[in-house]
Structures are given as structure tokens and as C-alpha cells.
Amino acid sequence: MTLKNFFIGLSQNQILNNMAKKYGLKLGAQSVVAGTNIDEMIESVSELNTHGISATIDNLGEFVTEKKDATDAKNQILHVIEAIHANNVNAHISVKATQLGLDIDEDFCFENIKEIVSKASKYDIFINFDQEDYSHLAPTFRLLDVLSKDYDNIGTVIQSYFYESMDNIERYKDYRLRIVKGAYKEPEELAFQDKKDIDENYLKLIEYHLQHGKFTSIATHDHHVINHVKQFVKAHDIPADQFEFQMLYGFRKDLQYELAKEGYNFCTYVPFGNDWYAYFMRRLAERPQNMNLMLKQVFNKKTNTLVGIGAGAFLLGRLSKRKK
Ligand code: FDA
After folding, report:
1. I need a labelling partner for 106 at 20 to 30 A (CA). Which of 138, 238, 272, 300 fits?
2. Is the pLDDT of residue 6 over 80?
């Protein structure tokens, strides 16, 4: 089992997920999660705004299996919309369909998302539909197709590891799109496995959408990609208001500030809430160097962090014995 698969396995572990919700931000997650409540999140967003950076806010949570949890998540997101408006911060919202009940019932999820999109449209707030694993790709596009008949404040994500992404980007070119490499484990029948192929396709998708599409969000921490885009937009006279760079909260902070200072539109993805565990494990899967965040906590902070890591290591050992 690779380290990447190991952390993806951990991200899907329900016991650890539930433990994490109970015990608040631990294992270094506080460096990459902007608090557990709306007030803390708004404070972080205001701080980003002072640096000329906008935010896309993610009320953490995904793969919900109970209607009550999906309804709670919807209500919380409605509060976030109110908070953006009341505090006049420069921010929009990212939602995950599985947090709003996609795995329970597509119609129920549709009604939840519709309520969110409708409220946000009143305040002219954009709603991005994050893309999750392949099994939720088509249903998420379907939600977009149906809602776009009545609303224009919505868009989604294209993941470059899927073979079908070029077809999808052509089909959805009239939407504001965030383009990413892709964060889930997908089989080789569906997705490139080799980093070089994923990166190559990533540049193709970005270039296509910059030239033919609506607004493009280039969401990456990869400075090679960022430098390539800088040259590409210059060479092709792509106006600055047609695109932005995006990165995750707490990652490459200096580069985030630098790009904003250079005059590029910049938007930080700001996750907050108690349901931080799966999100954090996926970040470790992408970049095991992020383990530094955890280790600093172990050596600097409280013993209960050690307990958390111990539990993680124990389950990790068990997982590594299982076949994928
Ligand atoms: P990648 O991990 O490929 O790294 C490339 C290089 O960049 C590294 O070799 C290193 O040189 C440099 N680098 C990367 N991270 C660094 C760091 N922290 N510090 C220093 N150097 C670093 N995925 C998904 O499936 N659905 C979604 O909806 C989203 N949404 C989303 C929003 C935003 C704003 C971001 C930034 C990302 C996502 N993702 C996502 C995750 C995305 O698919 C991808 O998994 C991660 O961004 C990791 O890929 P990168 O392109 O950032 O660099």
C-alpha cells in the first residue's frame, strides 16, 4: 500500500471521523482549517480580504447517510450565506452534494441545493459544486444541468485525472469552472494514474477553458502550472478578470499573498467546521510532506494529540493489512 492510498484509506474511516468530530481540531488540522464555527471562519476570511484575497467557503462534511445530517448541513450553509452578506466579506461558497444528501436520495439533495442556490442568488453569491469521486460525478453534473435552467450563480469543478474531462469541459464551457488535478483514488479504467499524464491533461484543460470558456479558477499549489498560466495568459491576451488562482487555506501562504500582490485575482478555499478529518487526511494523501503539520503538533503541543496519532497509526496498521 502506498502512502497516498494509506491516507485515502484513513480519510474514509468512519470511527476516526466520528472521534475527530468530538475532539475538535487536532493533529495540526488547525493550520489548514479556519476554525470550527462561523465567527472564526469569518474572521479568517476578513483577514484574507485585507490582503486582496477572496474566499470560497467550505462548511466541512461529506458522504452523509442520514437525512437529518444533510438538513443540518443545509441550514448551516444558509447561515454562512447570511454571514457573508451581513459581514460584507468577499466570499462565495463551495458545496459537496454528498453532504447535502446525494447518497440518500437525489431529489432530496436537489431540494437542499436549490434552497442554497436560491438564497445565495438573492445576495449575488456564487455557489460552486465541488466534485467528489467518480460515482458522484454524473449526478453532480445533473444537479448543475437542472438548476442552471433557473439560476446563473452556479458552477463546478473539472478534475484532470479523468479521461473524460476534455469532453466535460467542452460541454460545460459556458460555466464558471474550477480546474483541479483530482483528489480521490480512481481506477485506471477511468483515470490517469501517472502524475505526468494528469499534469499534461491539466494544462490542456486550463488552456481550453481560458480560451473558450467562462471564468476559470486554476486551483493548484503547483508553481510550474502557475508559471505556465502566467505566460499563457500574457501570450494570448487573456484579460485578468477572466481567471483567478485558487489554493487551499494554510498552504503556500507566501505564494498566495505574492500572487495577489502581483495583481492576479486570488481566491483561497476556506474549510471550517467539526467535520475536518476526511479533508485533512486527503491533504496528507496528496502531499505526505504535510505530515510536518502533524509532527509539529506532536512535539509542541498536548498529549491528546499523541493519542489521536496513536489511534491513527493503529488503524493504519490494520488498514494496510486489508486488500484495496
Ligand atoms: P500537486 O500535489 O500535484 O503538487 C505539484 C507540485 O507543487 C509539488 O511537486 C510541489 O513542488 C508543489 N506543491 C504542492 N503542494 C505544495 C505545498 N503545500 N507546499 C509547497 N509546494 C507544494 N479535488 C477534487 O477532486 N475536487 C475538488 O472539488 C477540489 N477542489 C479543490 C479546490 C482548491 C482551491 C484546490 C487548491 C484543490 C482542490 N482539489 C479538489 C484538490 C486537487 O484535486 C489536488 O488534489 C490538490 O490541489 C493537489 O494538487 P496540486 O495541483 O495542488 O499539486
Report:
1. 272
2. no
